[in-house]
């Protein structure tokens, strides 16, 4: 069995394991380990397993060791800790509180506030799933109590939660930057305008929905005093966003330094406002350690799998096939979009990224395209996959935390937002300047 055949069988095995909900790290590392062993054991034309043990173990352990000791990966625990500490300090939800008070009297105002709150939460936590889970517990019950259409109440949180993929800091951007060896700071900045464009599109969908069906979103009331109080209470979240984005853009901090400074600031603010205690702080640290360990395992397994793919020669073969087909830029992007949308229906974002990047990056480089821009396109596609049936992870998260609204109703509401998401995607593809304007001006 040649290396290419082993690679194809391995890819099929990974897809089956991921579809069966085997943990990503185990699926990737297990298949890559077995595949690497088979390649070395059959390389001389016969079956020589004794010659495969040393090179296989070298590939497995050296790749994992190199990745875990990567400087760029050190920002992952910092941003994870930032999100958890800010959550327990009550910082991540204050933008929603302020927006809900200020927009309550507008048609669909609380739903718009939910999307804005998700954007603010995402700008600190960097996790779409955590955003959908937390904001689902806070926003959906309030909207249902006010008499909102359950489809609008739940779908606005599900789609708003996807903003965590684009608005910095984003775990997906960190992993993309590590595997493609591109600047994570530039990726963070490249996601700002696409994230804001996506946010604006979501708000337009809510306004259109309520204009067509005013009963879907009854109006509320708020006093001037409560508006001022809510706006002032949101200052820590604004400060953290300015420190992260402004510090990176201004060249004051690297992305890792910005994360470290933000963690210290968040901790000081939490204790100063007496929202953090030593017990609560330690709980946030424990959760951060657990989440970081999971991300490190996935990243290490992904690095092993990428090395295995390179060993099989599949990436070079795919590039050769595309070159022979002489696809235009438009056709190439259609193929990319279709692949990611189809995979997004069944797999989670990190799994999709790990499976596709070994093949996509050589293609993009072969066409002379910008890897920073392509990173934004990939993350936007993964963002869409979070709300695409039948396995939209954000939809299931919101359904689990609300329990009173069925998945079918949430998907029915989400479909109204998918059209605007696809429009934003087309704009990002046709006008790369949207993604590259801010990093290009550094």
The number of helices is 22
pLDDT averaged residue by residue: 83
Largest sheet: none
Radius of gyration: 23 Å
The fraction of residues in strands falls at under 5%
- Low-confidence segments, ≥5 residues, pLDDT <50? none
C-alpha geometry: globular
CA(first)-CA(last) distance: 50 Å
What is the element string, with H for helices and E for strands?
HHHHHHHHHHHHHHHHHHHHHH
What is the percent of helical residues? over 70%
The total strand number stands at: 0
Structural class: mainly alpha
Subcellular location: Cell inner membrane
Pfam families: DctM
Keywords: Cell inner membrane, Cell membrane, Membrane, Transmembrane, Transmembrane helix, Transport
GO molecular function, one term: transmembrane transporter activity
Tell me what the structure shows.
One of its GO terms (cellular component) is plasma membrane. Belongs to the TRAP transporter large permease family. InterPro entries: DctM, TRAP_DctM. It is found in: Cell inner membrane. The protein is globular. The chain has 442 residues and is mostly helical. The chain has a domain at 72-294. It has 22 helices and no strands.
Outline of this structure?
The chain has 442 residues and is mostly helical. It has helices spanning 3-19, 24-41, 53-68, 75-88, 94-103, 109-125, 128-146, 150-161, 171-180, 184-190, 192-212, 224-233, 235-249, 255-272, 278-312, 314-325, 329-344, 349-366, 371-385, 393-402, 407-430, 433-440.
Furnish the topology, listing elements before pairings:
Layout: H1 3-19, H2 24-41, H3 53-68, H4 75-88, H5 94-103, H6 109-125, H7 128-146, H8 150-161, H9 171-180, H10 184-190, H11 192-212, H12 224-233, H13 235-249, H14 255-272, H15 278-312, H16 314-325, H17 329-344, H18 349-366, H19 371-385, H20 393-402, H21 407-430, H22 433-440
Helix pairs in contact: 1-2, 1-15, 2-3, 2-15, 3-15, 4-14, 4-15, 5-6, 5-12, 6-7, 6-8, 6-11, 6-13, 7-8, 7-20, 8-11, 8-20, 8-21, 9-18, 9-19, 10-22, 11-21, 13-14, 15-18, 16-18, 17-18, 17-19, 18-19, 19-21, 20-21
